[in-house]
Write the C-alpha cells for this entry.
Amino acid sequence: MTEFAVELRNVSKIFSSNTRGKVDPVTAISGMNLAIPTGKFFTLLGSSGCGKTTTLRLIAGFEVPSTGDVLIQGRPMTEIPPNKRPVNTVFQNYALFPHMNVLRNVAFGPAVRRLPKDEQERLARKALALVRLSEMGDRMPSQLSGGQQQRVALARALVNKPAVLLLDEPLGALDLKLRKAMQTELKHIQEQVGITFVYVTHDQEEALTMSDIIAVMDKGVIQQVGDPATLYKCPTNRFVADFIGESNFITATIVAIQGPHAAVSLEGETVYVAAGGSGRAGARGVVVTIRPEKVKILEPVKAPAEGLSAVVRDVVFIGTDTRYVLSLRDGQNLVARVPNGSDANWREFARGESVKVHWAGEDARILDE
Amino acid sequence: MPKLKLPSPGALYVGIICALLYLPIALLIVFSFNDAASLTFPFKGFTLQWYQQLGQSSELLASLRNSLVIAFGSSVLATILGTMGAIAIVRFNLPGRGIFLAVSTMPLVIPYVILGVALLILLNQAGIPLSAPAAGFAHVIISIPYAILIISSRLVGFPDNLEEAAMDLGASYWEALLKVTIPIVSPALLASFLLCFTISFDEYSIASFLVGTDTTLPVYMFSQLRFPTRLPMIIAMAAIIMTVTMLAMLISEWLRRAGQHTSPTGGGIASRKAKA
Amino acid sequence: MKNSRRFLTLIGLPSIYLFLLFILPVGLMVIFSFREGTTGAARDSFTLDHYITFINSRPFQRLLWQSAGISFLVAVIANSLAYPLAYYLAFQAGSQKNTLMMLLIIPTWTSYLLRIFAWKLILGSTGLLNSVLLLLGVIETLSPILIYSRAAVMVTLIYVWIPFAMLPIFSSLERIDRYLLEAAADLGCTRLEAFLRITLPLSLPGVVAGFFFAFIPTLGEFVTPLLVGGAQGSMYGNLIQDQFMRALNWPMGSVMSLSMLLIVLVFMFLLTRLGPLSDLLGL
C-alpha cells in the first residue's frame, strides 16, 4: 500500500467561461501540491468558490487539470477516465438514479462490473446494512427522506470498495440535528471500512468534528494543512485564523523577540505573545491574533503590570458565556468571551466600564503575512 | 493556413436533417419566382408575376381574411378558457381536477378527422349552417390543451401564496387574480395566443368538414392544389405568410428572452409548438 | 367552502365549452352509429346493422389495421430519427442550442398543406428526385415510380413529424440531472453504458410523448394520402372522410371513427402504463 492515497502535483485548473463570445479564463486552482495519506479522513475546507469542489472533481476525473498531475495510489491518472479510476463519489445532491429502487441503485457498481447477479445483491445488501438501511431496498429514491437518500448515496459509493471515497458536501441539504448525527456516523463508518475519505465542506465545525487532517483553501490555493487542533491553536495566516473559529486581530508593534516569545506594544502598553515565524524586533503594524475565549478581563486595580487598557462597549449574555466587545486605547475592537462564574475573581462588567485585558503569552500569536 | 475542422458525427447528422427539413420549403420558394405555370423542372426564369396576381384574387383574399378572423377569435377564446383552467388545476386540488385535466387534454390525442366529423354531426343536428366561424369554435377545442400546458407551466414556477398575499393586503380573490396572477403569467398568455393562432391559421382537417363554402385559407389552398395553373400563386402566398410568421416568431422569441430574467420557467414558444 | 366555489367558477366556463363542443359531439357520434339508414338525420330507430357491416367487411378492417401499422411505423421511424437530434441539442450543442432549436422548428411554421405538397414536387414523375436520377443516368425515362404509394405517404409524414417528435424527447433529456451521468461514470460506466442504463430509460416519457405526436395524427391522416398517396396510398382516414363527404353514410362513418378511436385509446392505455398522460406532457 502506498503512503499517499491521492497526490496532486503542481495542479492548476483554468476554466474559460464563454459569455457572449468573450472568453474569460477563470483560475479555479493554481499550482496546488497536496498529499492525502492513505486511510485518513481528509477534509478540504473553504467557502464557496474557493476551488474545493473543483479539486474533488479533478480527483474523480470529471475535470482534467490544465497543468500538473493527479496521482491515485501512486499511479498518474491524467489519461484515465472517471469510470476507470479507483475512486467513488458521494454527490452533493446525492444523484440517486430516480428510475431504480434503492437496492438497484446500490448494486449499480457491481452490475456495471458484470458480477454475477447473486453477488451483486449480496454486496448491495451488505452496503445497505452498513448504513443501516437494510429494510429500504425496495423503496424508490423519491420515497426516502433526505437523510436516507444521503445514506443510500454513501452505500452506493462504498459498495465498490474504492481506494478513495470522495464526498462533496454530502450533509449540506440536511437539517442541523440530522447533520450532527450523520457527522458521527460518517466518521464511524470511515473508521470501520478504513477507506481514505476526501471530504469537501464549507462548515468549519463539521471539518473539526470529523477530520484527521484538514486543508483550508481560499482562492484556489491551500492556506494551511494540519490536524484540527493545530489549525485551531496555531493558524499561520489571517485567513485560517478567521475561517476556523472566531479570532481577534490586533495591529501592534514588536518590542522584543526572544526565542518563541515576543513582546508587542500598543499605545505604550505591552503584552506578551508567541513569536510566530517571521517577526523581528521593531517591526510595526504586525498582526496579533487571539481567540476571544483566551482573553481575560480584570479590574484595573487587580491587573498585573502588562496588559491593555480598554473600555467595555457591549455586553451580551449567551448562556454559559458572556461576550464582551471592548475598545482598546487606539480604537481597535477586541472581543472577549468569558465563562460565567468561572473563578473566584469572576464578576460582571458593565457597559462603559474601564478595564484591563491580558492573556497568557502562548495563546496569542504574531501572524506570518 | 487555417486548419479544416471536421464536424462531429452529431453535428453532421443535425446538418443533414436540417437540409432535409428545408429542402421542400426551398423548392416552394424557388418555384414562387419561376416563370412557368407548371411546377416542373427545369426552371424557366425569374418572375414576380405570381406575387402581383395575389392582390387580384378575391377568393384568396376572402379566405385569408376568414382565416385571420377565426385564428384571432379562437386563440383569444382558447387563451381565456385555458387561463381559467390552468389556474384551477395548478392552484386547487379539489374533486373534479383530475377529470377536468383528463378531458381538457384529451383533444390532444384524438385524430382531427374524428373531431371534424363529430362536430359536423353536431352542427347538423343543431341545425347550424356550416361556416368559417364554426371552424373557429372547433379550433378552440384543439387549442385549449396547449393553452393550459403553456400557462400552467408558467404558473407552477411562482409560489402559490401570492394570491393570499394580495388578499391579505385587502384584495378580493378575483381582484388578486386580475392584479397579481394574470400579470405574472402575461408572457405565457402571449405565448399561448401566438401558438393557438398558428394552430388555427394552419388547420385544414377539421375546417374542411365545417366551413362549407365559407373557406379558410388552408381549405382554399387545398381546393386550388388540383388546378396546376393556380399553384404558383398559392405558393407565392405561402412564401409571404411564412416570412411574416417567421418574423413574428423571431420577435416573440426575442421578447421572451429579453424578459427572461423575470421568468423562472424557460419554456418558450418554439419548444411548445407541437401538433396532435 | 370558499375554495370549492372559486374552483368551480374557474373551471365552469371551460368545462361547459368542452362539454358542448367536445363531449357532446362525440356522444352524438356514438348515437349516430346506431341509427338506421345512411344520412342518419331525423331517424329515431336504432340498429346494430352498421356494426355488423363493419365486422363483416374485411376490406374495412384490413385498411384499419394497415393504417395503424403505417402509423406505428411512421411514429417509430420519426422518433428514431428525432432522438439523435434531441440528444445532440440537449447534450452537445452547448451555446448553439437555442439557435439550432429555432432552425429545426422554423420549417414547421410553413403551411402544413404546402409542406406535404412540396413532396409531390420532390417525388413526382417530373419532380426533383426523378430529374436528378435522370440526369445521373440512373433511370432512363421520367416515370411516377415514387409518388402515389404508401411509401410516399410514409416518407412525407416522417418528414413532417420529425421536429414534433424531437421536442418532447429534447425536453425529457434536458430534465435529466447531469450529475446522474457523472455518478454513472463514477460507478464504472462507459459512455455507452451510461446512455443505456441512465439516459435512455429516463428519456422514455419524452419518447412516448413523441410517439403520440406522430402516431395519432398519422392514424387520422387523409390529406397526405390525397396529395401524395393516390389510390394505392389511401388510408383509413380517407375512408371516414368519404363516408361523410361523398358516400354520405354518416352512421357507417361514425362506426369507423369509433373504431379508430378505440385503437388510439388502446395504444394510449398500453403506453401510459409508463406514467399518466399529464406526466408525459409535463403538466
Remarks:
- Confidence is low (pLDDT under 50) at residues 261-276 of chain B.
- The longest helix of chain B spans residues 58-91.
